[in-house]
Amino acid sequence: xxxxxxxxxxxxxxxxxxxxxxxxLRTQDEAAHVQWPTAGTAKEDPPHExxxxxxxxxxVREAKAAVDLGIETICDPTAMFLGRDVNFxxxxxxxTGLQVIPCTGIYTYDHLPQFFLNRDPDQIADLFVHDxxxxxxxxxxxxxxxxxxxxxPGVNENxxxxxxxxxxxxxxxxAPIMAHSRPASNTGPRQVEIFEEEGVDPAKIQIAHTxxxxxxxxxxxxxxxxxxxxxxxxGLELFLPYEKRQETAKALLERGHADRIFLSADSCxxxxxxxxxxxxxxxxxxxxxxxxxxxVPDRVLPELRESGMSEQQERTMMVDNAVRWxxx
Length: 328
Ligand SMILES: [Zn+2]
Known about the structure:
It is built from 12 helices and 10 strands. It is of the alpha/beta class. The termini are close together. Strands 3-4-5-6-7-8-9-10 form an 8-stranded parallel beta sheet, sandwiched between helices. Bound molecules: zinc ion. Zinc ion binds next to loops.
């Protein structure tokens, strides 16, 4: 039995159980956080609205809620620039029993610091390989997958470099890749192309956020490449409303694609990207609705069952696909 690395150590792949493929226990701007440690937290004066106890208690609360709804494992794609902290994840996992799978990689849409501008893809891959083989942030916790991203600026020079580094680290270690994408900017096909040029098996590639479009003529050609797709932003209304996400999921299930689909929310238990009042405005404006780790088990799955999703399809998407993506 293949093993998968979690923040509390390796487990047999068949111990993953019901898995949400894309949820964040905490998201913060790591440079701002290091320089102004209390900004955007409950310790700030005046406090930012992150609730009693701050981000740790909120992450625990959300993780417990997921466990109560039958979730056994999450993949947490919090990479560099999102404030990755594997000890934080480990503490939340130990306290709640939720299995948490960490990643290596770089989350950027464009910017790279000098450290990376002046290194080539192989040297960047060395860093990712270190996390996968030796451990993250001087711990024994090993990364189980590699994260990269392309968004509105498209697959420009810096983004291509990170993708090639991710691909080479994947080839050297066997670790799969999760690539944040932006269908509205047509990034998915080019991302897949780069991985193919580097020789990565499509079965190792997950194109996250493909569910931000309901255009089957965009989605199906990606699926034909043999990659995985994430219908993984339920609740983020600003990119695609909930009902359209569900219609897309149903259509893809009817067309027989359950074996390549992940359902998740890309929730962030806490997020410091915006001041509290702006987050409130975004919610009031309807740009995010029920955008939590709970939405898939609590709402998405019951509705899909009602509309004809079979037990086998559900098991494929929520259990078997994670095992296959992480351990093939
Ligand atoms: Zn994410």
